[in-house]
Amino acid sequence: QVHLVESGGGLVQAGGSLKLSCSASGLPFTRYAMGWFRQAPGEEREFVAAVNWSGGTTYYADSVKGRFTVSRDNHEDTVYLQMNSLKPEDTAVYYCAAVRDRISLTLRDSPEYEYWGQGTRVTVSS
């Protein structure tokens, strides 16, 4: 059974940093691309960042480009999201997701993903 478990969320002041982790089990991690999405109250889930199976290619939403960094450790079956210069509008529940990597994927669309974590809450105060 596949499990994705996020951690690292919390309360931070604007301008601060947080690092989210997502630990995967039950799947061949190096065959899967990993994505981060977020959902703010009353809003739809939106793409944040993604990384291909090797970690060599990354993707970002325009709203986080230059502030967030996605990375993965294929020895630890873990994907990370380093979030710097946080803004109140970054407040949301952050989810990691996994999909078997293939060229046809955009990695930006949530329906592409097969597995999801339970989410970790990030609150940025002004």
Written overview of the protein:
The protein has 126 residues and is mostly beta strands. The protein is 0% helix and 50% strand. It has strands at 3-7, 10-13, 18-25, 32-39, 46-51, 58-60, 68-73, 78-83, 92-100, 115-116, 120-125. Strands 2, 4, 5, 6, 9, 10 and 11 form a seven-stranded mixed β-sheet that branches. Strands 1-3-8-7 form a four-stranded antiparallel β-sheet, with no helix packed on it. Strand 5 and strand 6 (58-60) form a beta hairpin. The chain starts with a strand and ends with a strand. The model has no long low-confidence stretch (mean pLDDT 97).
Number of helices: 0
- Give the overall silhouette: globular
Give helix % range: under 10%
Low-pLDDT parts are none
Overall mean pLDDT score?
A: 97
The main sheet comes to: 7 strands, mixed
Oligomer: single chain
Distance between the termini: 40 Å
SSE topology string? EEEEEEEEEEE
Helix-strand category:
mainly beta
